[in-house]
């Protein structure tokens, strides 16, 4: 059984990287071209995450979506429990997201862009 878990993990990780390479340019380019390109970028982030979850066989259920008024701003707080949080969060929240983090994270490459 461990062998199949290892194969699945390898498959999911490779799929994650390949899809990120494919969608990455469509995620980054709108931000570089236009100051409001983050809206277009977010569409591709959701598409990337949805494609990866579907092809990896990951299914999830979101409770309480009916309580969210899309016309109002919200602050969502995520307690990251695993690496899968990053692709699932954009799919679970029906609104465009902006990430906040500690100032110290700006010193880390990639986070500090």
Describe the protein.
This protein is mainly alpha-helical. It has one domain. Helices cover 52% and strands 0% of the residues. It is built from three helices and no strands. It has helices at residues 2-33, 38-56, 85-92. The longest helix is centred in the N-terminal third of the chain and has 32 residues, at 2-33. The mean pLDDT is 86.
| β-strand number | 0
Number of helical runs? 3
Overall shape: globular
Residue share in helix: 40-55%
Integer count of domains = 1
Largest sheet: none
| Sheet/helix structural class | mainly alpha
Our estimate of the beta-strand percent is under 5%
Parts with pLDDT < 50 across at least 5 consecutive residues:
none
Distance between the ends: 42 Å
| H/E element order | HHH
Rg over alpha carbons: 16 Å
User: What's the mean pLDDT score?
Assistant: 86
Write the layout of secondary structure elements.
Layout: H1 2-33, H2 38-56, H3 85-92
């Amino acid at each position: 059984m461990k062998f199949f878990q290892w194969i699945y993990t390898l498959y999911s990780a490779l799929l994650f990287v390949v899809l990120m390479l494919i969608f990455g340019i469509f995620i980054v380019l709108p931000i570089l071209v236009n100051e409001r390109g983050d809206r277009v970028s977010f569409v591709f982030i959701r598409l990337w995450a949805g494609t990866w979850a579907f092809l990896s066989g990951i299914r999830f259920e979101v409770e309480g979506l009916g309580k969210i008024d899309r016309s109002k701003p919200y602050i969502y707080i995520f307690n990251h429990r695993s690496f899968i949080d990053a692709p699932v969060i954009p799919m679970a929240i029906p609104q465009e997201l902006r990430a906040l983090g500690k100032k110290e994270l700006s010193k880390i490459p990639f986070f500090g862009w």
